[in-house]
Write a structure and sequence with these properties.
Layout (H helix, E strand, L loop, with lengths): L11 E8 L3 H10 L4 E6 L8 E8 L2 E8 L5 H9 L2 E9 L2 H10 L4 E10 L2 E9 L5 E6 L12 E2 L11 E10 L5 H10 L4 E6 L10 E8 L6 E8 L6 H9 L3 E9 L2 H10 L10 H4 L1 H5 L6 H7 L2 E5 L2 E7 L10 E8 L6 H18 L3
Parallel strand pairs: 1-4, 5-8, 10-13, 14-17
Antiparallel strand pairs: 1-5, 2-3, 2-9, 3-4, 6-7, 7-8, 10-14, 11-12, 12-13, 15-16, 16-17
The chain binds fe (ii) ion.
The site of fe (ii) ion (FE2) has 6 residues, from β10 and β14.
Length: about 375
């Protein structure tokens, strides 16, 4: 138990902002494939000259897709270097100014100095700091705001509204960092943001014939925010972390894990809408009950959908991973349902990595 006062209390993930090549089409994809609902918009029609943003929401998950309208733009630069990817992991706080002061005095590099933004429904305070790669955290204080998203945005009400697929909240978000940088960034989250280490893995836990990685899970003291950090470890061939770093041109967000209360329904819906998942060999299911003990679900639908199961001392979890959702093999998603377990599916890593290696083999990047 952490007995020191939490200098950076965080209420949850506020939003995740992606810089993309075409926000209009990305928004359509997340509506159609992932069941996100239209929420807000900003662009030429709202007075912006250089960018457009679409905001989508599914229960507590808010995604923002932003694209540059001009070539001379940090958004365009970001897309040129990284491809589509996560720029902002925004954190919901009660005091954005204090969050900025507490983290920068502990060594965080400023990204956005605290400032107020207002409209007729109230005001927000925003501030921000840099983290791994070109990724940033923005602290969002919205206790005096009642607008649809943030000042500058208007309600986005298209006629096209595919239904939700039952995604509920961000369970965790994983960062891939460069060779030898995992400890640096784990230390950053500890020293600068007051996070504690939940779990660590090394290459003796997670390695296949070809691939290895190291991982540490950092969490805010209330456990609302969990950031596993991966770095590549030497293997016979190129690991998926190394592949990511190579295509993303540095560290960045690797996957966003989104929780559901009914993974069977959610994954069946996602599949029918065209979301592609990694598939483990069928033999995985033959030994499943032996490995994880009794579970409430029957094996057959799990096998059919390719859902994985793992157990820890607190319970079990069900999870599945999509293939990357861009042309570069970078960002992907995890769908997770927790039944007591508080860990991240370590028992599945080996089977999963072997299935990723089959994909890497097809891409010629192993
Ligand atoms: Fe994960």
């Amino acid at each position: 138990m952490n007995t020191t006062e939490d200098f950076l209390p965080i209420n949850g993930t506020d939003y995740v902002e992606f810089y993309v090549g075409n926000a209009k089409q990305a928004a359509h994809y997340y509506q159609t494939a992932f069941g996100f609902q239209p929420l807000a918009y900003a662009g030429l029609e709202t007075g912006l000259k250089d960018r457009t943003s679409y905001v989508l929401r599914q229960d507590k998950i808010t995604f923002v897709f932003t694209t540059a309208l001009v070539p001379d733009s940090p958004i365009a630069d970001h897309c040129k270097l990284h491809g589509d990817g996560v720029k902002v992991v925004a954190l919901w706080v009660d005091d954005a100014k204090k969050s900025f002061e507490e983290t920068t005095k502990r060594g965080a590099i400023p990204y956005l100095h605290p400032h107020e933004e207002k409209d007729e429904t109230g005001k927000v305070v925003l501030s921000g700091i840099r983290t791994y790669g070109e990724t940033v955290h923005i602290f969002v204080e919205r206790k005096n705001y009642r607008g649809v998203f943030l000042p500058g945005f208007v309600k986005w009400e298209p006629h096209y509204r595919p239904s939700s697929v039952g995604l509920r909240y961000v369970d965790h978000m994983v960062g891939n960092v460069d060779w030898g940088e995992m400890n640096t960034w784990a230390q950053f989250y500890h020293d600068v943001m007051g996070f504690n280490q939940l779990i660590s893995f090394d290459d003796s836990d997670i390695s296949t014939e070809f691939t290895a990685l190291m991982s540490k899970v950092m969490a805010s003291s209330n456990l609302y925010i969990k950031f596993p950090l991966n770095e590549p470890a030497a293997g016979k061939k190129k690991s998926q972390i190394e592949e990511y770093i190579e295509f993303y041109k540095g560290g960045g967000v690797q996957h966003v894990a989104m929780a559901t209360d009914n993974i069977l329904d959610t994954v069946a819906a996602l599949k029918s809408r065209g979301v592609e998942f990694l598939r483990v060999p069928d033999t995985y299911y033959d030994a499943l009950i032996q490995r994880v003990g009794n579970i409430e679900e029957t094996i057959e639908p799990l096998r059919e959908l390719g859902i994985l199961v793992d157990r820890d001392e607190d319970g079990y979890l069900l999870q599945i991973f999509t293939k990357p959702v861009e042309d570069r093999p970078t960002v992907f998603y995890e769908i997770i349902q927790r039944k007591g377990a508080r860990s991240f599916g370590k028992g599945n890593f080996k089977a999963l990595f072997e299935s990723i290696e089959i994909e890497q083999g097809k891409r010629g990047t192993l």
